[in-house]
Each structure stands twice: as C-alpha cells, then as structure tokens.
Amino acid sequence: MANYTTGVSDVGIESNVPALAWGPVIGGATAACAMSLILLLLGSGVGLTMVSPWSGESASFTTVSVTAAIWFVVVQWLSSALGGYLTGRLRTKWAGIHTDEVFFRDTAHGLLSWALATVVVAGLAGSAFTSLVGSGVQAASSVATTAAVGATATAAGSNDAPDLATGYFTDLLLRPQDAAARAQSDDAAATAEVSRILMQGAANGEIPEADRAYVATIVAARAGIPQEEARVRVDQVLQQVEDAKNAALQAADEARKSAATVALLGALSLLVGAFVASAAAALGGRQRDDEEAALIVRA
Prior knowledge:
Elements: H1 22-48, H2 61-90, H3 99-157, H4 167-173, H5 179-185, H6 187-204, H7 209-223, H8 227-298
C-alpha cells in the first residue's frame, strides 16, 4: 500500500504477480469442506439422539425438522467463515496495490473459496442422493417386475379374467339382473367385480349411484344383511376411502410446502454463506497485512 502513488499513470505496466492466488482459495475451500463434514456428522449424531423407535420417547417431526434446518444454516455459516478467513490469511501481500483493490481481491478470494467448497460438497451430496435414488428405482423396478409376473401368471391361470383396462366396462355390459344370486354362487367373481368398481371410482373421483346400489346388493347377499344396512355399510366404506385419499393429498401438499420452504431457506443460507466467506477473507487479509506491518515497525 505504501508504494501506491496517486496521480502517477501506470498504463501499459503489468504486474508480474497474478491477482488470483489459487493456493489460498483451494486451501480455504478444503478447510471449509472438512469443517462441513465434521459439523454434519456431529449434527447427525445429535439428531439421532432425538429420535427413538419407542413410542413417546422421540421428539416430534416438527422439532426434528426445525432443528435440522437451523443446524444446516449454522454449518454453512461456520464452514464459510473458516474457509474465507484462511483464504485471506494465507495469501501473499500485494505490493503497490490500493487498499480498495486489496479489499476487493480479498472478498473475491473468499467468494471463490466458498464457491469451490459449495460445489465440492454439493457434488458429494449429489452423488449420495443419486446412489440412493438409483437404489430406490432399482427396488421399485424389481417390485414392479415381480408384480407384473404375478399378474400375468394369475391372468394365465384364469381364462375368463377380464383385462384390467376394460374390466369395469365388461362387468357393466355383463351385469346380471339378479346380482344377489350371482354373488352367492360365485364369491370370487363378485369380489373381483367390486374391486374393479372401487378402482374405477378412485380413478374418476366418484362412484355413480347405479354402482353404489349394485355394490350394496352384492354386500347384502354376501353378508346376509338387509339392503338398507348394506347401503349404509357401502357408504361408510366409500367415505373411508375418500378420507384416506384426502389425507394422502393433504400429506402431499404439506410435503410440497416443506420442500419449497427448505429450498428457499437453503438458497438464503447459501447467499449469507457467500457474504460471510467474503467478509471473513477480507478480515483475514487485513489482519495478515497488519501483522506484517507491525513486524516491520518493531524491526
């Protein structure tokens, strides 16, 4: 800073010292990554003490989620501060540079250190996530393949089994007048037909009145109860199905809101982490220059 002279033109003069020092940047990013892993492991260990398979001994889902979100923010800020500070302290002194330029370079180095550490940690987390998703897809594929083989075997063993895509409409065409007699004589066919009616109703969002009456007739014949009581039972079961569907939709909506909140908080935390790393690098660089200036004065 002492060699910088205002009013002196240095156009065409290029310093042989690069403005970007990758050594301190990589060193600070490495320290930030290591600190992130340590803190994440520490948080995982503490978090596991908050949950328990025993009833009444585990913290609520909301408490665990909020604690995890806060801890992720703390991890981001602490690791960014450490990486940025080390980046500023480890760089060499820029001679003949204005203090404003020194401040800019320090903050830029801290930002680059944060960016490198973020990319590395995100890459490691992404690899783990991809591996987890791949395992889940493979397991789901195995289950689907097994189910398909089982369904094919079942269909092959029954020559009169209707296609699942057109089974409901086939039943509608072949629906007998005396449904009670058929239900008592062929339990398997009646059960399969009711299942197809319920599946069609779930797909369409409602079950027509004619199908409700038909199912109530089958239930009355199978259970040996009056038609009115069977209709009440059918309505109760259909209401339970509707409640279960609404509960699933509510859970999906809550998961969507939680994911949106986590994404927004994560983006905000990363932005604050970038600022913390830049400020810490500027602080470390200033302390490094002040220490050297103090040594020179004492000498």
